[in-house]
Amino acid sequence: MLAPSPLVPDGDRADTAVLELAHVDAFYGKAQILFDLSLKVGQGEVVALIGANGAGKSTTLNVIVGRVKPGAGEVRLDGRPVKDLSIEKIVASGVTCVPQRRRIFAALTVRENLEVGGYVRRHDKAALKTGLEECYDLFPVLAKKSDHLGGVLSGGEQQMLAIARGLMAGPRVLLLDEPSMGLSPKLTVEMFEDIRRIAQTGRTILIVEQNAYAALSVADYGYVLENGRVSLAGPAEELIENDYVRQTYLGA
To answer: 68, 70, 110, 246: which has the highest count of C-beta atoms within 10 A?
Structure first.
């Protein structure tokens, strides 16, 4: 195993963290899943958290959104701990998670799914209108199928809808949990092109993904999670060229 890279390179990412996990341990019952996990996501950054199945990636997201309370350490937004906040208040603070396997509402139309995503902003009609227009600009196929039921969309379209629904909350931090899951290689490429376009709007994004190359190709910075611990971290382009990462996760 290679020695871990510095988590915060000199002069980079140091004091701009919107989201930070500091020395987090996490458990399901008596089973410890995360061990002393620390990571940062800076303002406007795209950060990839890669690793094999069972490495603890989804548990990391569950800790961030409050579904799992840390056994030690803490989650911070803008430097402030969120341990006493409910899931609803964490979402209202600007953190939105797009879950695995999409979980759209099959019996609702595309537009209705998006309106559900904007529930936290339901009292701001102007913001909802702007959010809907932005989602349709980012995903024109959703605009064309606005009145179609979510359940009749293709898998790729459903993933677009799931991400757009997350954007409707107006998140400051967008969490994507395995966005390529269940997609063909062609649709996976298209999905990450969509994520790249979203990133170009200046959003802060944390991608949890087993497809290491796809995630790192759109990221600014990356972390490798193995058995609940960060084993490597560094700029995404450096991780793509790292021999250990290439051999273990990129099939090189």
So the answer is: 110
